[in-house]
Amino acid sequence: MPVTPEAMAALRLRGDELADATVEALFAGGGIGHFNTLMRWFERSGDPLPEGLPPAAHDYLAATAAPPDWVDWDLMETARMFFIDNNVHISTALSFASMPACYMLPHVAKLLAATHALDYPSNRMAATGQFTVYLMRPDAFEAGGSFVPAAQKVRLLHASIRHHLRREGAWDQATWGVPICQQDMIGGQMMFSIQVLDALHRLGVHVTQAGARAYLYAWQVVGAMLGIDTEAAPADLAEARDFSDLYMSEFMGPSEQGVQLTRQLIELYEDVVPGTLLDPVVPALIRYLIGDTAADWLAVPRSAVFDRLVPAAPLLLAVTEHLKERSPIAAMVIDRLGALTTRFELSSLTRGRIMHYAIPDHLKDEYGVHRPKDERWTPPPVSRLLTGS
User: Which of 63, 207, 258, 304 allows an S-S link to 103, with CB 3.0 to 4.6 Å?
Assistant: First the structure.
């Protein structure tokens, strides 16, 4: 579907019919606690569904137990290899560009505040990281994989938030539309796809056209499994640019919740890195990736030293890119170090625990791809929908 302001506005009125009906039935039958207990033991694709599930939950899990039948598995494998080749860079982009992008949308920051994210920032970051790691494992969609059950639970989690916000009158639906509406779900999809690719480009990471396309495709598959209407979502990188630019330009701005979420994100990663010498790197990296205007909205601290040093990161990455292209052994060592770094970051956030996706019974009281040397992907230009050209 072509991206237009009118089409995007219509998406603001739509949620996720299947997941919403399931959650409504679970709450009506008083079965949320029992369902969450059973779901803690349902972690792998192909496992028998737990006995004693409410009928609505059983039907939902059966209906969503497989990825869409249109998936191009060769393209998904290209996406997985792209992730392996760039795992540290992608984790950096997700943590210091995509997450702050969420926080610079006041209505999204307010929603996160209503779902305990302000009290437990490490849980949200750990769950996001774990979800992405599950997606990029070789067995993600096979029997024994963890990704499909995680996607099923996240989809119900989103529906439960819609349920609570509507029931408790804690959401201005006339202004913001349906909570976690199709527009916001697709907006989130853009933050995890095209905006990650933008951040990689800004970091100087060598991304091919094939790699960029495959990475976007992986998140198109994920979006379908999380309840996004694939007919309404961007079909390619150019449409993704249009949607992302239009969505962010319409809704981004400063908010108290955004400032608080960003401060906790910074403190969280300062705690992960041993010592205090490199603490200013975290805000400097956020400021570099999202720009001064957005960083000021989020009250990201400035550093006279590191704000000047971080923009040199592309030069350092260029050295590693050169080594990987010249030496298979160097490529293997660097990719292995990247995998270990990502694992260390995730284990630090999770403290070795498996993150469970449960339906809350209340809200807060307060509110390696092969890279031809002669080819490099560059982000599509600013959307013509904003420039008027």
Answer: 258
